[in-house]
Amino acid sequence: MTMRAKVLFVLALVISAISITTLPADAWYTQLRPGQSPTHYFLAELSSNALHHFNLYNHDAIFKGSNEPDDHGLQDHTASKRRSSQSFDAAAKKCAKGDNYWAIRRLARSFHYLQDYGDPTDYLRGGRKDYVRQKAHEMLARGQYVVSNNYWLNSYRHFFGQVANRNLQETLDYANSEAKQIGREINSIYDLWYQRGRRQNEVNQRDGAVRQKLLASFGLLAACQDRVVELFDQRCKELGEGPPIVAPPRPTPQPNFDYPSEAAPRPPVRR
Ligand SMILES: [Zn+2]
Q: Cα of 147 to ligand 1 centre, how many Å?
């Protein structure tokens, strides 16, 4: 190697090391800045029909709510299930007060955590994770590509039938277990390709099979989100019709889960 070649080689190593360490740690490769790839928002939009149906559609509230958790730098998805149902409860409280905008925004935030909990790409090994997340984003960003796809529609119908009678916790768990299964299937597609000697002329076939699994996972999330919207409408009506809430004489301190930023709920300050 000449000196110049050595310098270029080291430079290439440094650049690739930097790009590996700065890859977004968030699920679904959501990145708001730079380059704007709001994957969570696109996933939330898959439920726009259900949201419209229950008069819960507001573009700004859905965009902001679905991206809020990552916008505030939250990278830990271990608590996704709990946070999704906390956001649902926060949304229901806003709805009971007649605050439709914040109800929708909090509902969209609960979608985000549902999407994190039901993210099949979380289970992908090695470099394929980022590759598949990028593919997922490209598919979702292509306008009507996903929702006009029959495979997506059939997956959606199948999964919606499966969650039709589930409550919120069961729906979240179902999203998680099916996402794990889809993740295993995507890993198998890659493993088979490796076993066959990583042939370049089979990359398109491999990616086509992966795209189909992603369409299934989008169908899963849309079905679970739509179920959440149904449950939300019920909850909101129950709260609206219920007897006036009488404060207990000595209220037990409750952590405030409707936190404005996505930092973990802080204990109330005692004075
Ligand atoms: Zn997230």
A: 23
Q: List C-alpha distances in Å: 93 to 55, 170, 171, 233, 235.
A: 17, 21, 21, 12, 9
Look at the chain and count its residues. Answer: 271
Taking only the tens place, the pLDDT of each residue in 143-165 is 899 999 999 999 999 999 999 99
CA 204, 209, 210, 214: dihedral to nearest 10 degrees?
130
Separation of 230 CA from ligand 1 center, angstroms? 23
Measured in Å, residue 106 CA sits from the centre of ligand 1 at: 14
CB burial of 50-84 (b: ≥16 within 10 Å; e: otherwise) equals: bbeeeebbbeebbbbbbbbbbbeebeebeebbebb
> What are the start-end ranges of the H helices in 72-202?
80-96, 100-117, 128-141, 150-163, 168-195
Q: How far is the CA of 216 from the centre of ligand 1 (A)?
A: 20
Provide the whole-model pTM. Answer: 0.79
Burial of 225 (0-12, 13-18, 19+ CB in 10 A): buried
